[in-house]
Specification:
homodimer; 405 residues; Phosphorylase Kinase, domain 1; Aminoglycoside 3'-phosphotransferase, Chain: A, domain 2; three-stranded antiparallel sheet; 15 helices; 12 strands; globular; Kinase-like_dom_sf (chains A, B)
Chain lengths: 405, 405
């Protein structure tokens, strides 16, 4: 990787000109750098003659996001390899890749800026009636077909090896499963929330223990090739389709982590309406839509997963009475537990979400954060009693009624 | 590995002469090949002048033990690397290694033929009062210091990668967790046992399901660097010391698998006395000794493991109230469950144990096998209710009383 250098806008244009089959020879290319500049450069390159456009995502070398985490540019390789597998399994539910350049640590890919980042859509109160169907397809296919249920055990273990991704996992281990549960320096705390953390949240010994059990599962359970960061900011959406992106956290981990990330981020949006100036009618309607979506995601996931299993699982696995039910119950419980951790970290940890941080009044923001923390806590503590997604929906409704009372 | 060839006895002698620091120049070397010849060549080379001796263990290339399992000679690398780690962690509880030769797929190691293979000692009714202390040291050190509790997460993940060992794991997946639970071709079935299997054992749906859950744990839970085949035939013993050998199955797996292997093999010996011509007094006394040993192994393991944790676990882990207790309860349950699978496979599967197969009368052997299967079944089915090793001992005693009644 001796020839790595961060590209300038001009160099980015020169670079794509040499990639076959993207732009025609008479293209008049224009380039903007649209990344946040911390971890990656993101070049948007557009042909003024044809309106065709592409994205170049280039990793910055040896970024430090926290003192103890150097991020090498190898992460682009994980992203590329995971996208390739996800693309084949889901028939194109990820951005099209035109070129992966390991030396320059970049991926040239489809420009999807005509779609919406789902988080923004949810914040605007948009509804996506096909989302449950779409994301459950993505989840069920990627989770089932990369697991030991389907793959030859040797091939699966080679993939585990290929996707050992310590740097990116460390970020999750610390930011999701460790730091939010004590007064860590990395945390980003709304001063109005601090009293609740100090007087209540950080004293919850049972919660801290259960989160640590889930952390161990994250660190040891090599179940499926997961996306690893599947929040609503990693999904482009419109009324027709979704595209899942930013797969650099991909590794072999517990399958429930991706499902939980989606559910947890819908819960964060659910909680955020507490702090917003909208009518009670709108709020109730939108929240019902979100809960209905969560219910449909799990139920459609389960239906699809069972059908893949019945068709394509190893014969010795299919022969085991009751194992499919046991597997799915465990997966539901893992998903909700992991989702609880993903919900809580966004209220306390380093990286927040716009759903909540968009609430400018810090007192109101703290109210919404506490509401989200209470649901997150219940997700972790009560996960082992769950037998269906409806059990979970009831828990959320009960906490909501207490909040509203 | 282009220069690989199986050595002749003469070549084995020439080979060790060139390894520095083993034999003196005027040694008069004699060589015997003492392996069973299926998987490995084992040369015992002795200096007639000094009585010094060594072992060369050389892997045969591309062995097929069952049609679908080719065993490449790379397994020697796993054995060597695991021995090296075990040696450092346990201060010499494995045979000393004089040389590892990757090209020839061999290890030159300490000759321990003055010690006894533990299985033979147990079959002869020997007692080893220090064994619980010794093996609990081996287990607690190797399990704790290779886990995420102690290692830097990045270093641990690199080790997981280094020890991805699909070929040897496949043997365990099939022979321990799959084939014994149906009428598989690989099984090796005492005709007197067959009616019990057909009429009862193979119809136990709950057992089959729970074994499959344990199989999934074996395939996905990368918790510690385990030996992977720690039965009493992999332990040299005398009244002073133990040496653990045959580590080619080593990989990152569930920590309970090694503990369970030891306990399961003590249970196999425990069951075997049912079929043997010994006095009731001897039998009861020896069985009490075995149960006492099992109890001490776990309790000493737990004590040592907790002390390593208190001294050397990551600070963020030490800070979690109740996590150590939860971790150890889970580990006990995993160990007993895994041990149950190890017990049952030796009665039905391809590879048996001399404890039981030494019973020449096939009817009596079947009685002992059924007794072992009943304990094995209880280990799997009742593992989740266990809170202490004493709970388990009571289960064994109850089954024994029913058997004797």
């Amino acid at each position: 990787m001796g020839n790595y250098k961060p590209l300038t806008k001009r160099e980015a244009i020169e670079y794509v000109k040499q990639v076959q089959g993207i732009f025609s020879d008479n293209a008049d290319l224009e380039c903007e750098e649209i990344g946040d500049g911390n971890l990656n450069l993101v070049f948007h390159i557009c042909d003024k003659n044809s309106d065709q456009s592409i994205i170049i995502k280039q990793a910055l070398d040896h970024v430090r996001i926290v003192e103890s985490w150097p991020l090498t540019k190898e992460r682009v390789r994980f992203e590329y390899k995971a996208m390739d597998i996800q693309d084949k399994l889901t028939n194109g539910m990820v951005p099209k890749v035109y070129k992966f350049d390991e030396e320059l640590a970049l991926i040239v890919m489809e420009d999807l800026s005509d779609m919406t980042v789902m988080r923004k859509g949810l914040i605007a109160g948009e509804k996506y009636p096909h989302f449950a169907d779409q994301i459950s397809t993505f989840l069920s296919k990627t989770i089932f077909y990369t697991s030991d249920l389907y793959l030859d055990p040797k091939e699966k273990k080679e993939k585990v090896k290929e996707f050992i991704n310590p740097e990116l996992c460390k970020i999750t281990e610390d930011l999701v499963f460790t730091d939010p549960y004590y007064d860590a320096e990395t945390n980003n705390i709304n001063p109005e929330l601090r009293p609740y953390l100090e007087n209540e949240f950080w004293k919850k010994a049972e919660l801290h223990k259960e989160v640590t059990i889930l952390k161990e599962k994250f660190m040891t359970k090599a179940q499926s090739l997961i996306h690893g960061d599947l929040h609503t900011g990693s999904i482009f959406i419109n009324q027709e389709a979704i595209k899942v992106f930013d797969a650099e956290f991909a590794f072999y981990g517990p399958s429930g982590f991706d499902i939980g990330a989606v559910i947890g981020n819908l819960i964060l949006n659910y909680a955020s309406w507490t702090g917003k100036k909208v009518s009670r009618e709108f709020k109730n309607d939108y929240r019902n839509y979100l809960l209905e979506t969560i219910k449909n995601i799990w139920n459609e996931f389960e239906m699809k997963f069972r059908s893949f299993w019945d068709k394509h699982a190893h014969e010795v696995i299919k022969a085991v009475d009751g194992y499919q039910d046991a597997y799915l119950t465990q997966l539901l419980q893992d998903s909700i537990g992991m989702g609880g951790c993903k919900t809580m970290r966004r209220c306390i940890g380093l990286a927040h979400v716009e759903d909540l941080d968009g609430i400018e009044d810090l007192k109101k923001r703290a109210e919404a954060q506490i509401f989200a923390l209470k649901i997150g806590e219940a997700m972790v503590i009560r996960r082992k009693k769950l037998n269906s997604i409806e059990d979970f929906i009831k828990i959320v409704q009960k906490i909501t009624n207490q909040e509203d009372a």
